[in-house]
Design brief:
Blueprint (H helix, E strand, L loop, with lengths): L2 E5 L5 E5 L4 H10 L6 E7 L3 H13 L2 E9 L2 E9 L7 E2 L1 H6 L7 H8 L1 E5 L12 H9 L3 E5 L2 E5 L8 E3 L5 H11 L5 E5 L5 H12 L3 E3 L5 E5 L7 E4 L4 H13 L3 E5 L7 H10 L2 E5 L2 E5 L10 E2 L11 H8 L5 E5 L9 H6 L4 E5 L3 E5 L8 E3 L3 H13 L3 E5 L2 H6 L3 H7 L3 E5 L4
Bound molecules: uridine-diphosphate-N-acetylglucosamine.
Length: 430
């Protein structure tokens, strides 16, 4: 397994290009299953999760082509998907166990073909993450759902039927899956307490461009008038707000200055306000965000994760790392996932001062210094928190299990090196 080696202490200065959003791209790819026409997605990030989703679609029978593209002088990918000859309606265990988002094939395959078998995802490092809302809602739309041998067997006689759905939790995954089921259903579906995350809005924009009739975008009540058929479309994936927020912290933690090119400030208002409150300068430009913490003394600040537009749980670990370099105490409260402080024991090994209370909150006290150490990543965002700590730690930090980072951070070492970090990947066979 590859490792990442960092020598801490460099102030980061320069520009980082922010890629297309992984969490938007994954459901957008699956929306291609709703039509026999071609769906073209531009500004796609080059990540292992995208490759995994493409491999799943290919084994269903989707024809995929890829092209290199350029956005603001930076290389991006364009993929085209053609789900004309679907030969297989099974999402097998080996795909789902590697990437839970494989469950996004459920809604579209059921809506278009009336049948699908999906290996039921288990829990993961950050929580139990059940799929009950997805499955109950599909049942309310007339689907028959059975769980046998670890698989969800879903079927529908004729088209799914529009229904009034009220979600128990504003789940991003359930909102996307049910949107993709409802667009081809007979009649109108009303989805209450829908997730308002920008990635959901991006999916709605693609579906409407394909001929769907969805109203209520960016609100918690979505109305979907089912149509009989959808057609091809071309869509540009939104920029990755979590990648942007992660590099914003890289600027702040090293007391540097980074321009995040292609970042969309409007999607990051809560985290940017926290950075301002802590004492960093944050400038929103038409094409990005500039974070300037040069010469600043940052002060601690309390954070509570919440549904969008609240503070994203996917930036909690990174901001917790930042608080270690701020003056005073900060309280971090996690409300979305039940086990999302797995980065804390590793940070403690680097000299952090953190007290976790139960599973929900942590008190972080600023320390004079962090010390490099070999550390173990447990999930994607926790891994980036360890990279951030390594960037300011004295000496060498080795982050193990880099495959977590490769799922969600495109060209991580290249991007950090370009702004002055001393960071290298140690290949397994080096
Ligand atoms: C998505 C993101 C993830 C992010 C999360 C919250 C992707 C691929 N992943 O995950 O990075 O951290 O949103 O912003 O986009 N829940 C249930 N039953 C369900 C569905 C969800 O109890 O049927 C619970 C979950 O366990 C969790 C909460 O609802 O506690 C929110 O989960 P959800 O919004 O569904 O997250 P994901 O879509 O899995």
């Amino acid at each position: 397994m590859d490792k990442i080696k960092i020598h801490g202490g460099n102030r980061l200065e320069g520009k980082i290009f922010i890629s297309g959003a992984k969490n938007a791209a994954l459901p957008l790819i699956c929306a291609s299953l709703l039509t026999a026409d071609t769906i073209t997605l531009t500004n796609m990030p080059m990540l292992s999760d995208i490759r995994a989703m493409n491999a799943l679609l290919e084994q269903l029978g989707v024809k995929i082509d890829s092209f290199n593209d350029f956005l603001d002088g930076h290389e991006t990918k364009t993929y085209s998907y053609r789900a004309q000859n679907i030969e297989n309606l099974v999402a097998p265990y080996d795909f789902v166990r590697k990437m839970r988002a494989s469950y996004y094939v459920l809604g579209p395959l059921l809506a278009r073909f009336g049948k699908v078998e999906l290996s039921l995802p288990g829990g993961c490092a950050i929580g139990a993450r059940p799929m009950d809302i997805h499955l109950e809602s599909l049942e309310k739309m007339g689907a028959k759902i059975e769980i046998r041998n670890g698989y969800v067997h879903a079927s529908s006689e004729g088209r799914l039927k529009g229904a009034h759905l009220i979600f128990r939790i504003a789940s991003v995954g359930a909102t996307c899956n049910l949107l993709m089921a409802a667009v081809l259903a007979e009649g109108t579906t009303i989805l209450e307490n829908a997730a308002k995350e920008p990635e959901v809005g991006d999916l709605i924009n693609l579906l409407n461009a394909m001929g769907a009739k969805i109203s209520g975008i960016n609100t918690s009540i979505l109305t979907i008038e089912g149509v009989e058929k959808l057609h091809g479309a071309t869509h540009k994936v939104i920029s990755d707000r979590i990648e942007a927020g992660s590099y914003a912290v890289a600027a702040a933690i090293t007391r540097g200055r980074i321009e995040l090119v292609n970042a969309q400030a409007s999607l990051l208002q809560t985290p940017l306000n926290i950075l301002r409150q802590m004492g960093a300068d944050v400038e929103e430009t038409p094409n990005g965000i500039i974070i300037d913490a040069r010469g600043k003394k940052l002060t601690g600040c309390d954070i509570m994760t919440d549904y969008y537009p609240g503070f994203p749980t996917d930036l909690q670990a990174q901001f917790l790392a930042l608080m270690l370099t701020a003056e005073g105490a900060s309280m971090i409260t996690e409300t979305i996932f039940e086990n999302r402080f797995m980065h804390v024991p590793e940070l403690l090994r680097m000299g952090a001062n953190i007290n976790v209370h139960g599973h929900a909150s942590a008190i972080v006290r600023g320390v004079d210094k962090l010390y490099g150490a070999p550390v173990m990543a447990t999930d994607l965002r926790a891994s980036f928190a360890l990279i951030l700590a390594g960037l300011v730690a004295e000496g060498e930090t080795i982050v193990n299990r880099v495959y977590h980072l490769d799922r969600g951070y495109e060209k991580l070492e290249e991007k950090l090196k370009a702004v002055g970090a001393d960071i290298n990947r140690i290949k397994e066979d080096d």
